[in-house]
Description:
Strand content: under 5%
Order of helices and strands: HHHHHHHHEEEHHH
Distance between the termini: 57 Å
Strand order of the largest sheet: 1-2-3
Radius of gyration: 24 Å
Low-confidence stretches: 1-14, 25-42
Structural class: mainly alpha
Helix content: 40-55%
Largest sheet: 3 strands, antiparallel
Number of helices: 11
Amino acid sequence: NSYQTAYIGGWHLWANCAGGHDREENQYVPPGPYISGSEGEIKSKLFYTVSNKGLSETIKYARISRVLAILNYCERQGIEQITKEDLENYSRKGCESAHRDLSEARNVFINLKAAGFIKNNPFDSFQPKKIVYDAKIDFIPIEGINKIQDLSTLDYKNNLQVRDRLICLLLYDTGIRKKECLLLKYTDIVKESDGMVRVILKGKTQKGDKNTVPLYLYLDETKQLLERYLKIRDRFNPKCDNLFVSELGKSLSGTRFRHIVKEHCKLLGDIKTFYGQEPTPHIMRHTMATTMIS
Length: 294
């Protein structure tokens, strides 16, 4: 059952679309009609479709590859052949990765049954072991936050520095998530008559699609830098109405946004978190929450 590029069928097409088909954990090739032909085409599209529910490519890939791992281990030719006994045997591997495989696969099988592709879900009578993590909430110590708030170290003539410092300040001041900040429009910034500045966080941009809420800026540094940035934003030649745009005037990607936070904190004296990690947009959210309760 080694991976063979000669099998150019539905399964191979799915693997190529989903990504990572040449990885070691994906080197299982189902025999017979599951490789190519009409039935294989249906099964391959099924795997890709049921996992395509607004999840990131990483999560989609993880869920599908873990179903493949279970298929390979149990030497089954199709998903409908997996039984409760197979799941129990797989769980006896005892390692954390096996429990994670089962937890991820469970979501795929729920979708398979809901879509009518399988009549019986073996997970209906089998509950994967829950993985309990020793979670630690990391944050930026006060010394690092003071560096971010100190605008005397900012080169106001450098438009990118102004943008990047504002991103860090806005994340910390409001506690908004990375995606929420990326989707902010410049029209979402409202300055009121009393000098208060509020950020309109639309419901559709929030996790869980909640109601639209106003977020008031607390730090004077954030207000000051936001006012400055709005004046120079046009110098980026924006091609969209996002508040934060790239050097080319386009919307920022999540990866680029994360890189901006990391690199700007490094510029300010290699700011690290309490546990010695590089800051991320979500760490800024943790830091705001930590500041609120301390």
